[in-house]
Amino acid sequence: MRAFLAVVLAALTASLYALSTSLQALEARRTHGSTALRASLIAGLVRRPLWVAGTAAGLLAWPLQAVALSIGSVGLVQPALGLGLVVLLALGVFLLHEPIGARETGGVLTIAAAVAILGHAAPAQTGSFTGGGTWAVGAAFVLIAPAPYLLRVLRRAGGLPTSVAAGLGWTWVALGTALFDVAVADRRWAAAAGWGVAVGVSAWSTLLAEMTSLQTWPATRAIPIAFGLEMALPPAVEPLLTHARSPHPTAFGIGLALAVAGAVLLGTSRAVARAAAEPLTEP
User: Is the dihedral of CA 267, 270, 274, 280 positive or negative?
Assistant: First the structure.
């Protein structure tokens, strides 16, 4: 029952994140390329109502994600966020009248199969982090938070580096949120506040990387990388950072592989790309 509730909350989270991605990416593509990986990119976007609406949807999604991660494990919740790609597909089909082909059908079925398998094979809960795991997540924050600015200094503002940075950033946000949940459950309020601030800082820098990737690269290339990392990497590192263990490791591995495959299939779909980058009106 807990796994089912976690998936339902993850689906709601994914829907809000999908709406957020669609509205934010639309406005990001309308900005000048000279703002890539600069705070001025976000500063310009906050003046645009559609982008602000997308940001509001993303902000509303985070508490739902936090609750989902407090009920189910990272290994179940993060892959279930791939349902957001299904939402983008639905937007592309019903509002932009994009046709459904074998790629789209296969992607939906693959993600559905992945979530079903992980509902059975993922750890019931994330549980407590090891001491080394907590320090590892904290150390990763030092590297991930300034990543967009480092990429700008290195003149690597292209689609691939920023898409990878976005995927890694959302991975950290998921792990940081899980640590926030643990601190709240243990009533360690100072630690909870610290992780909450760290999540906020990481979300800002990750958003900057994601908006740049969608500004400079086709959505059919940026989305699979960012979504694939966000869905698969947190569950993959969960056993290294926490005491949680899958009761069925082989099935768990198969479920993760299917989640990534589904992200690639749907992320490279024209219907999903248009829903993530074009106005949701008649063409």
Answer: negative
